[in-house]
């Protein structure tokens, strides 16, 4: 008896629910949607929201766990990648700098009134006493001894003999044995630039104590030596010591940064002495 | 047998209802023969039959009426269940209690039907008590008559004849 009542109750409940659903399927809400659809959507959307939230948490938890597991390996890979990129960046930076330098050199070459040949510094000097560098141009390129070597910032030095077929040594202006005819640009006070193992690394000699020389005056090649083309920058007067003698003791700061010399121009005009020798011959 | 009785009863009620609704259109007396059949089946066979009869009969009536299918079904299912449960709990084998059950079932049915319509259909809840009372009385009369016919009809006569013949064969 009890069992029948229970069954009847369940049956009644099932029928009522079924008919409620049936009725709901036909009725529309005030917004125009079907009640069953609205209720089902509401219920399922909450269910979906809960499920999605739970799934999202689980996914995050799992991805964090997996991420932690792979973090070290990924970190190593990324470190290597960063190192590679840093090297690449430095290379790019170097290329950009080199390109700027070459551009400046090209500008100088186009402005120069004398024929020039671009050359690259391929080696320094192993002897710290001598201030020389080796360039990648030699006799096969028409380079001969005593040709002037210049850079965008000013005079670099001269080619030393003997000249190899594809290379040549260049004596820098700051070498203690180097010398060049020079004058101040402002007052045209003449003298001779020599290298000095001091600071500043150039000294201007043979300038009369009566000459008007001031700190900051530009010093340019005078061309009297027959090597360096006249008017090219050598540096700027850094100190002037009038002293007690007949000459001024002038310290000159070179225009060229000899510590970072990479590209230069060889002035392809033969030195005057060589020209004279050829004339004699 | 029971299923056949349920189906025949419901189909007959529906057929008669559709037949007389045309005759009684505009009249004051609005009997609900499907409801009468549901209450009858619930009283005669119990709550399960009452629920099933209410569901089937109500849905069929709704479908034929063209309104929201399910409201009448829901009302009649509820009535069938309540009447069936009460019928199994109390002795409703005499005419008066059956009449009361038919009347009460009609009121409950109208109450639930109108309530559901007001709730779902968005119309005001209106229950015309006098009309409902007339309908309830009519339903009750038809239901009670149906019980009387079935219980005292051809089957009862046959049983009575069988009983008499067996008694005549006895030799005292």
User: What is the level 1 CATH name of chain B?
Assistant: Mainly Alpha
Sheet with most strands of chain A: 6 strands, antiparallel, barrel
Helix and strand element order of chain B: HHHHHHH
CATH architecture verdict of the largest domain in chain A: Beta Barrel
CATH class of the largest domain in chain A: Mainly Beta
Overall average residue pLDDT of chain A: 81
User: What's the β-strand tally of chain B?
Assistant: 0
Dominant shape of chain A: rod-shaped
Characterize the quaternary organization of these chains: heterodimer
Strand-residue proportion of chain B:
under 5%
Give the radius of gyration of chain B: 18 Å
Notes on the protein architecture:
- The complex is a heterodimer of chains A (281) and B (172).
- With 281 residues, chain A is of the alpha+beta class.
- Chain A folds into two domains: 2-60, no CATH class; 116-270, Rod shape-determining protein MreC, domain 1 (Thrombin, subunit H), CATH 2.40.10.
- Chain A is 40% helix and 24% strand.
- Chain A has helices spanning 2-26, 35-111, 272-280, and strands spanning 116-123, 132-135, 148-151, 154-160, 168-172, 179-184, 190-195, 202-205, 218-221, 233-241, 249-254, 263-267.
- In chain A, a hairpin with a 7-residue loop joins strand 4 (154-160) and strand 5 (168-172).
- The longest helix of chain A has 77 residues, at 35-111.
- The termini of chain A are far apart.
- The mean pLDDT of chain A is 81.
- Chain B is mostly helical and 172 residues long.
- Chain B has a single domain (2-168), classed as Arp2/3 complex 21 kDa subunit ARPC3 (Orthogonal Bundle).
- Helix content of chain B is 80%, strand content 0%.
- Chain B has seven helices and no strands.
- In chain B, helix 2 (33-45) packs across helix 6 and helix 4 runs antiparallel to helix 5 (95-120).
- The longest helix of chain B is centred in the middle third of the chain and has 26 residues, at 95-120.
- Chain B is globular and about 65 Å long.
- The A-B interface holds A 4-5, 7-8, 11-12, 15-16, 19-20, 22-23, 26-27, 35 and B 46-48, 51-52, 54-55, 58-59, 68-71, 73-74, 77-78, 81, 84-85, 116, 120-121.
């Amino acid at each position: 008896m009890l069992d029948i009542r229970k069954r009847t109750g369940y049956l009644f409940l099932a029928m009522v629910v079924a008919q409620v659903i049936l009725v709901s399927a036909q009725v529309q809400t005030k917004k125009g949607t079907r009640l069953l659809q609205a209720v089902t959507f509401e219920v399922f959307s909450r269910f979906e929201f809960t499920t999605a939230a739970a799934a999202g948490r689980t996914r995050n938890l799992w991805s964090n766990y997996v991420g932690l597991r792979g973090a070290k390996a990924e970190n190593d890979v990324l470190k290597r990648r960063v190192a590679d990129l840093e090297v690449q960046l430095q290379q790019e930076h170097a290329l950009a700098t080199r390109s700027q330098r070459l551009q400046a050199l090209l500008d100088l070459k186009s402005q120069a009134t004398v024929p020039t040949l671009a050359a690259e510094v391929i080696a320094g000097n192993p002897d710290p006493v001598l201030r020389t560098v080796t360039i990648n141009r030699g006799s096969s390129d028409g380079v001969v001894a005593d040709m002037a070597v210049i850079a965008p910032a000013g005079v670099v030095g001269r080619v030393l003999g003997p000249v190899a077929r594809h290379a040549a040594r260049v004596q820098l202006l700051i070498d203690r044995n180097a010398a060049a005819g020079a004058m101040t640009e402002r007052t045209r006070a003449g003298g001779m630039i020599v290298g000095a193992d001091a600071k500043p690394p150039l000294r201007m000699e043979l300038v009369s104590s009566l000459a008007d020389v001031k700190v900051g005056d530009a010093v340019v090649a005078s061309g009297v030596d027959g090597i360096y083309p006249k008017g090219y920058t050598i540096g700027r007067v850094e100190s002037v010591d009038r002293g007690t003698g007949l000459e001024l003791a002038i310290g000159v700061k070179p225009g060229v940064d000899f510590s970072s010399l990479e590209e230069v121009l060889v002035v392809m005009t033969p030195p005057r002495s060589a020209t004279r020798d050829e004339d004699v011959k | 047998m029971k299923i056949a009785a349920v189906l025949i009863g419901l189909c007959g009620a529906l057929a008669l209802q559709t037949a007389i609704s045309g005759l009684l259109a505009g009249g004051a007396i609005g009997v609900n023969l499907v409801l009468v059949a549901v209450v009858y089946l619930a009283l005669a066979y119990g709550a399960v039959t009452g629920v099933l009869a209410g569901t089937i009969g109500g849905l069929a009536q709704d479908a034929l009426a063209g309104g929201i299918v399910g409201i009448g079904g829901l009302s009649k299912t509820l009535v069938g269940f309540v009447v069936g449960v009460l019928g199994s709990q109390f002795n409703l084998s005499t005419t008066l209690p059956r009449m009361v059950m038919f009347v009460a079932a009609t009121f409950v049915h109208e109450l639930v039907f109108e309530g559901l319509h007001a709730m779902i259909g968005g119309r005001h809840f209106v229950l015309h008590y006098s009309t409902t009372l007339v309908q309830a009385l009519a339903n009750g009369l038809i239901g009670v008559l149906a019980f009387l016919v079935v219980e005292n009809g051809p089957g009862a006569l046959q049983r009575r004849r069988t009983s008499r013949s067996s008694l005549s064969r006895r030799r005292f």
